[in-house]
Design a protein that fits this description.
There is one protein chain. Helices cover 76% and strands 0% of the residues. The protein has helices at 2-19, 26-52, 56-59, 63-73, 92-107, 115-143, 149-170, 177-195, 211-235, 241-272, 278-303, 309-314, 316-331, 348-361, 370-399, 407-429, 433-457, 460-495. The longest helix has 36 residues, at 460-495. It is elongated. The chain has 18 helices and no strands. By secondary structure, the protein is mainly α. Helix 2 packs antiparallel against helix 4 and helix 6 packs antiparallel against helix 7 (149-170).
Length: 496
């Protein structure tokens, strides 16, 4: 049989060279013929090896090595004479080879001695499916009118996600854990495949209703369904590790949703504001990020309430991206709201949304790390609120022709003093030392600003107003601190 396969291989190669050289893809057809030939030879020799028993069961699969080598040769310069997707002479021989591998793994090897070989055959079929799927979609997109190579790669990533989900579902049965692992790896490969095709839109753009965004949506949905399958498997007696894998898949689903909306917002603002400049585009993109990532963080924290400390801490990752967006807006001077209203604009409200999200995340239970995480989140929210006020007040004062532009400087001092008072009151009300300390530090910064900066730049009546406002707030804060300190001391004595 081996000699017969070799003779047929040489004969088919010579036949394509002498009789099919006029065809543009004859070298390609020669490889496809080898793949199909040795796939059939594998079926025959495997059947004979099974009948013979013993070590011949292993030797009967020697032709599959030749088929896999020939298949690897066909990965280069992938092309087909027929345009239909999958139904062409390029893909069908590989589909035959994958079917042979799966059939052999399912029916020929069922005992414990050959389980490893069955696993290897199924994994080889999964690898062939992943590689040929991407090559076929890229080829098909290039020959179809209205599609590009970029679209084919995006479609391949979505199909990888669907294939990975199918393998994960098949791996939920006992003794099929390798399928679930292969499925999760293929889902991860789909994530990498879509990230390598950035930017999201290569040419035309239609908000949300476009191929690239739909591929990202399919990927996120596949991760979400995989999370439900893994969690259900753990609840119905499956391995306990499936629960953690389900938590990771659910977190990946939310992060992918965030990235998809992030990239879509970037393309949207580039399309809506093509001539507005880099700063205007960055301003809208940062504002979008301040909406997207805090929402993702809150959803991740809500989903991780019963999943352990680790996954509650993982919810801080999208919040950190939101904080980086706020810092980017601050450093790039991209605080450019479209509305002139005070506070009610498309820059300040998203910033306050991030502040609120950090305050809500600070209430979660982070275990031993909570002693440092919660105060850090609260102080970070206070810092971001102070930064937003420092940007909003001068901007609003500059839009009013009836006021001196320097009034915005004194308004910043007043706003900081009010925020410091609020921090001290909240720290006393809820017994949070970090908030009280943050309020005192902000009061000190405000007084330093009034003395060193406002006094030198403002007019006389503006200086008087700044000093009076800060003094009144300090008096009120001192009274509130004295009132609550007495209650705190009484509670401490009772505790002792």
């Amino acid at each position: 049989l081996v000699l017969l396969g070799a003779a047929l291989s040489l004969e088919s190669a010579l036949a394509w060279e002498f009789n099919g050289a006029h065809l543009p893809l004859w070298p390609r057809h020669r490889v496809e013929t080898l793949v199909a030939l040795w796939s059939v030879m594998t079926l025959v020799t495997a059947w004979m090896g099974r009948r013979a028993g013993g070590g011949w069961r292993w030797a009967g699969f020697a032709p599959v090595v030749v088929a896999l080598v020939a298949a690897q040769m066909g990965f280069y310069r992938w092309d087909a004479a027929f345009a239909p997707l999958f139904l062409n002479e390029a893909f069908l021989p590989y589909l035959l080879l994958m079917g042979v591998l799966m059939a052999a793994a399912r029916t020929r090897f069922k005992d414990a001695d050959t389980a490893a070989l069955a696993t290897a055959l199924e994994c080889a079929a999964a690898v062939l499916l992943a590689v040929t799927t991407r090559l076929e979609f890229v080829r098909w997109a290039e020959v179809m009118e209205g599609l590009t190579k970029h679209d084919g790669a995006m479609l391949a990533g979505a199909v990888w996600a669907a294939e990975g989900l199918a393998l994960t579902a098949l791996g939920m049965r006992p003794g099929r854990a390798h399928r679930a692992v292969a499925g999760l790896l293929l889902l991860s490969l789909a994530v990498g495949g879509l990230f390598t095709e950035l930017p999201l839109h290569a040419d035309a753009f239609r908000p949300l209703a476009n191929l690239s965004f739909l591929c990202w949506a399919v990927l996120a949905v596949c991760w979400g369904v995989a999370a439900r399958l893994l969690r259900r498997s753990a609840e119905t007696g499956g391995p306990a590790s499936n629960a953690q894998a389900g938590n990771a898949a659910a977190f990946a689903c939310l992060m992918l949703c965030g990235f998809a909306l992030h990239f879509e917002a970037d393309a949207l603002w580039r399309h809506v504001l093509p001539q507005a400049g880099v700063r205007a585009h960055n301003a809208r993109l940062y504002a979008s990020m301040l909406v997207i990532w805090p929402v993702v963080a809150l959803l991740a924290a809500r989903g991780a309430r019963d999943c352990g400390v680790v996954w509650r801490g993982a919810a801080l990752a999208p919040a950190a991206i939101g904080v980086l967006a706020a810092l980017g807006m601050l450093i790039d001077r991209a605080y450019l709201p479209a509305s002139s209203w005070l506070f009610l604009n498309d820059a300040f409200l998203p910033w306050m949304g991030l502040v609120g999200a950090l305050c809500l995340l600070a209430r979660a239970d982070y275990g031993n790390a909570g002693k440092a995480a919660a105060p850090t989140l609260r102080l970070g929210a206070a810092f971001l609120a102070a930064s937003a006020l420092a940007l909003e007040m001068p901007r609003w004062a500059g839009t009013l022709t009836s006021l001196d532009s320097r009034v915005g400087i004194s308004l910043v001092s007043a706003a900081w003093a009010v925020e410091a008072f609020a921090l001290i009151w909240l720290g006393l009300r809820f017994r949070q030392v970090s908030l009280r300390a943050g309020g005192m530090v902000l009061f000190a910064v405000t007084m330093g600003k009034v003395i060193l900066f406002d006094t030198a730049t403002l007019l006389q009546y503006q200086r008087v107003l700044s000093w009076m406002a800060c003094g009144m707030l300090l008096v009120v804060a001192g009274w509130v601190y004295h009132l609550f300190s007495a209650r705190l001391l009484e509670e401490e004595k009772r505790a002792e």
